[in-house]
Amino acid sequence: MTNQSRIDTLKEIVGRPTRKIEFPKNSKGEPVYTSEFFGENVFDLQQMGMSLPKPAYASFLKQMRGRQALDKPTADAIAHAARIWAMDRGATHFTHWFQPQTGTTAEKHDAFLSLKSSFTPNGEQVSAIDAFSGSQLLQAEPDASSFPSGGMRTTFEARGYTVWDTTSPMFIQEGPHGTSVLYIPSVFISYNGDALDEKTVLLRSTSQIAKTACELLSLIEPVPQGAQPKTSHVYTTLGTEQEYFLIDRALYAQRPDLKHTGRTLVGNLPPKHQQMEDHYFGRVPSKVMATMAETELELIRLGVPIKTRHNEVAPQQFELAPIFEEATRAVDHNLLTMDVLAKVAHKNKLKVLFHEKPFKGINGSGKHCNWSMSTDRGENLLDPTVKPETNYRFLLFLVAVLRGVQQHSGLLRASIASSSNDHRLGAQEAPPGIVSAFLGEHLTEVLDSIEESRPVKNFSVPTIQSIKLGGTVLDVKVATLPAIARDLTDRNRTSPFAFTGNKFEFRAVGSKQSPAFPVTVLNAAVAAALQEIAAALRAEMGDKPYPSDADKLTVIKRYIKLTKSVRFEGNGYSQEWVEEAERRGLLNINNCPEAFAQLIEPQNAEMLTKQGIFTASELQARHLIMNERYAKDIIVEAQTLRTMLASQILPAVYEYRGQLAQTVSLLKDIEGESDSPELATIKSLTPVLKSLQEAIVELDASLKKMHHAGDDPVEEAKIANRVVVPAMEKARAQADKLEELTADKFYPIPHYSELLWF
Predict the structure, then answer these.
(1) What is the pTM (predicted TM-score) of this model?
(2) What mean pLDDT value characterizes the chain?
(3) How many domains does the chain have?
């Protein structure tokens, strides 16, 4: 048996032409600037203003700002305008686009086409019309029992509702044959109003942090009596750096593990992978560049402000990143980006892998969430400015973030826990499971100086004048260059939560997951800390109408001391940090079931319910859903590995060994030799085959233990982690040895060297 399909695929890949598309041009055939067609497929406020009667538009703006409910005439007017706009661009259907707790988005398409009956003397006349009502815009009804609900909905209680999120604009996506679909961003709730999705709780958390931030600002920003507060609204901003792999789709189709689980369950690294450090920021391969460019074209039309693209560290690993936006919009745009990237890759005969660790031994992928808070005046509340030591507003918000992370580090760890992210965290390419915050040398000195009541040490920002080399001065014509500015903080890639100039980068978020839940948890934790600090300020200022600078400084100093344990500037990968973190009382959670338990830990649960982010039943349901998802992920992986070993790898090795045995027998008959190289190969294969067969038996036994757990998702998840995962690793170790020993023409699935270097 030779694996001819794998060989044929490799030959086809070499000669495959790159897909070409046309970027927009004007009537003169000249390129159109991206700013001119940015958001052309979005029914945004500007488009609404042009399409709606002025009273309807004004009414909608009031509703969107939370000042009144959306009445039926306004909803009907918006629906009519949206339908005309969408159908003029080829739309035939509409859909409520929502984010169930499945790790992806969901949609059900309904046609604008409807039938209208009228009665005449000659009987009923039926005519076709295009229609879209306000009620259809505002809500739809998917089957709630078919999505994860954690027991809140049973099979016979099927009703659930998707409801239009008016803060996120509608958009169209192009479908097949020149048609399009109108997408309506929505929340997903049960018949009883429980949140069944990721977005409802995100919206609650953004509302809560806006409220608590404004309350603190009203304390520290005095205004004349009768005047309006300087800040009437605060919103969180988010920028999501999305890492991903691209591999050839034909090779992907020959890997059952990639198809079913998103990662390779067997496979060895090629001689050259990322150890040369030549892929990061290197030249983008032409096939990949074509995919990137087409993806960006679609995203620009969809109003996604995509900004950056580059090679990442591992071979065939890449990254794209947008400009910062309001957090809920940024989450929608990240999910849309993943969707568009997958579709465009498919057109280019590639497959995008969002799994956090698709290949063993090289870097995995993250989704770095750059998070901050801004006012309606455009001020970044986490901007340290030139003298952070006297910027008390910045310092109060900074220590609030640190306090939130310190108090609810376990909850933040739970928010990024998944079976896939477990492979990446702490693996010398991603932050460890210990949640700490990095501030950098300058800010650390600022906080230390305040704590110790002393002046800040002088930090000079040097400019490069020359480079000394070998005792001589190397002239680099620096006089022709501008001054080189240095940021206040360096970067620490080992920190899960690092301050990077005017924002925090939550680096531990996994590439495959929606950023909604981690941002929800972060918002909630910081909102609780803002309330705590506002209360401390009130207590300090007593009967004064506003706290003095001394009052602010007293509170700042107190929280600098309280949050010192969560600040860490060193190497998060070191064993010394593990030991130091334990001495500081920080949690070191290294598996999913332990992380999930943090959701219902009393301190965390009380904070989330008190803030109004979750109800007690919603929180309990999410805990069960996360455990159930983890257990199912592991079962699918184990069964996929079992099938690949039994039906592909073992038969291939048996055939190879059989052919070697025939050769040994023939040589013995001809030459009388009994100690040939072929026999030595058989002797090296045989013990590994036996070990693999034993490992398969052990894997089967581990799966039986899971089945005996009954219907308890928590117990299933624990068994999956303690028993099934080690059994899979043991089987893989033997299978990978066989890959090294088996002749290439017999090996049935594409190697890493083929997947990573097409």
Answers:
(1) 0.93
(2) 91
(3) 2
